[in-house]
Design goal:
The chain is mainly alpha-helical. Helices cover about 65% and strands about 5% of the residues. The model has no long low-confidence stretch (mean pLDDT about 90).
């Protein structure tokens, strides 16, 4: 509704008489939003920064919202498939953001830290020197100590899984190296 009810009523009557007016108004609003998208985004970012507590959800609100979304996800197959598609599309369009989120959540590091580690290692696996980055699932992956959670370096998938198969035990790895030397 407009800022005054009588203006809103007058607009509704004009648009009822001529439906093209409504389409034109909606298209102009949509065009304006597209033109000013970045400026609006920046304005809201600055506003939220200046007013941090104003729109923050309480834990109860978040729990209620998440429960409703989980229920909808479980019951509405059409919505679930649509949601999966939109998430997949976002991930494909934003690979850097996706990688950054994953690194932050699983290892507690920023994307810039990850890139710095990769540069220190000359963009190659710290063990075997593999450096083909065409498939990010194969290289580079973050190697970390499972007991302390400390990041050790970046490895290719084969070296990382190899360490895991040997339970990250240097004695087992040396025994395997000795075995290979003996039986070459």
């Amino acid at each position: 509704m407009g800022w005054k009810p009588e203006h809103h009523e007058a607009r509704m009557q004009r648009e009822a008489a001529n439906p093209e007016l409504r389409e034109k108004r909606l298209q102009q609003a949509k065009d304006s939003q597209e033109r000013n998208k970045e400026a609006r985004k920046q304005y809201m970012k600055d506003y939220y920064k200046a007013n941090p507590g104003k729109y923050k959800l309480t834990q109860e609100d978040r729990d209620r919202r998440n429960a409703a979304r989980r229920e909808k996800y479980a019951q509405d197959k059409e919505w679930r498939e649509s949601h999966k598609q939109s998430v997949k599309q976002w991930q494909e369009q934003n690979p850097e953001k996706r990688k950054s989120q994953r690194l932050k959540k699983t290892h507690g590091i920023e994307l810039s830290d990850y890139k710095d580690m990769l540069a220190v290692q000359n963009n190659q696996c710290a063990i075997c020197g593999y450096s083909d980055m065409k498939n990010p699932k194969l290289f580079p992956v973050v190697d970390h100590c499972h007991t302390r959670g400390r990041i050790r370096g970046l490895l290719c998938m084969n070296c990382n899984q190899g360490l895991g198969k040997f339970k990250d035990d240097p004695n087992l790895l040396m025994a395997a190296a000795a075995y290979l030397s003996r039986h070459g």
